[in-house]
Amino acid sequence: MVKRKVIRRVPFKRRRKGLTDYRTRMKMLLSGKPLLVVRKTNTQVIVQVVKPEVKGDRVLAQATGRELRTKFGWPASGKNTPAAYLVGYLAGLRALKAGVKEAILYIGLHRAVKGARVFAALKGALDAGLKVPHSSEILPPEERIKGLHIAKHAKMLKDTDPTAFERQFSAYLKSGFDPEKIVEVFEEIKKKIEQTVRLQVAE
Q1: pLDDT at 2 over 60
Q2: What domains lie within the chain, and their CATH numbers?
Q3: Which of 21, 63, 202, 203 to pair with 169, CA 20 to 30 A apart?
């Protein structure tokens, strides 16, 4: 009896790491349009507008949750829903500044869950003026984008379980930030982002 040789195909490295869906990516590349790439890490959301080329992706514009905190004074998490929106908004404004008017959303292997942070980033890019094909049903509601759910949860814990409040929002409190005021700070940071990019364009 002749034994058949079993050929085992090893997935590409980025597929193994859960970073790239090559089938979806190929379909997008055929469109010839830039990609709005949204990624999440343990500490931040990263949004890039890239132009796929033979030698690799060329980054046309980008923004990160870390940058949101260091350059614009965002006092909360760099990966929550409001932060994702603001990062998308910043990346969108920078893309327009670079001459990019439209793009195709690419979220890699992230699950397309309605209202997820990747779609908050998309909403930010859309509000900045970038045209991206999408269904409005997948976008988070305005209250969640601004962080109202965080403010309400913080108030509830503060009133009912102060210990849990201090434990869950310890990072916020250490920096002197009151999580109940996150909506107000969100609006301030958004205006600051818009003014900063507008000044850069004027220059």
Answers
A1: no
A2: 21-202 (3.30.420.100)
A3: 63
